[in-house]
Write a structure and sequence with these properties.
With 245 residues, the protein is an alpha+beta fold. The protein has helices at residues 32-42, 58-69, 137-146, 170-176, 182-185, 224-230; strands at residues 9-10, 16-24, 46-50, 72-76, 85-88, 93-97, 100-101, 112-119, 126-132, 157-162, 180-181, 204-208, 213-218, 236-242. The protein contains six helices and 14 strands. The strands form two sheets. Strands 1, 2, 3, 4, 5, 13 and 14 form a seven-stranded mixed beta sheet that branches. InterPro entries: Endo/exonu/phosph_ase_sf, Endo/exonuclease/phosphatase.
Amino acid sequence: MSLDLPTSGPEPDGAERVRVLTYNIRSQRDDRAALVRVIRACEPDLICVQESPRYWRPEGQAAWLARRTGTVILSGGGRATAGPLLLGRPRVQVLSRHDVLLRKRRGLYARGFATAVVRIGRSAPFALTSCHLSTEAAERFEQFQLLPGQAVGRAHSVIAGDFNEEPQAPGWRWLAERYQDGYALARWGADYIARPGNPIQRLDAVFASPGVAVLACGIPPLPRADLLAAADHLPVLAVLRVPAA
């Protein structure tokens, strides 16, 4: 299925068009075949996963997902980050890893960030972070404020994940003043759809630092049956233009 989306790949000036997918996969507890079909149809160069399995064979399950989707593990996953995981095409070069397991508050889930500095082709190196923020408002706002630090001094960075709040909320607005909200800037794809009985929410997003051009961002228009069977969140796919080194 064609997604009517700019292809990834090099540009004549050395910049790189990159497809970034962010996806909360609910620990692969749903239809794994549908999950693989959705991911492969998006043809991502980079995948920011949330709720990668943490407790039961997390390394093996992450490796299974990588094999089935034609990717490799870049960083994160399992207990090391409390779920966030980075996958990428074999052509992605990992320059360094900067995963963080955040301080856990009593009564709340452990949270962490999976971060790697990567380079694709002749692009400038950039930091890529997958996150899954708290459901508790005060803790979540603190976590929003930590995210820009995951750029680890790089001029360019991408932050993607499940933010557990919507664009009008304080943390999202705080981050959107510093990073580009891909969907707000270059909306593409299907309208946000909900699982039966649930409200329509925009909790998942791809943010890019100034200097990284957002060409398109949104929900891939894939078969509804697969989207609903694969996980309890919808994937968000963005095409970014990362400048040359």
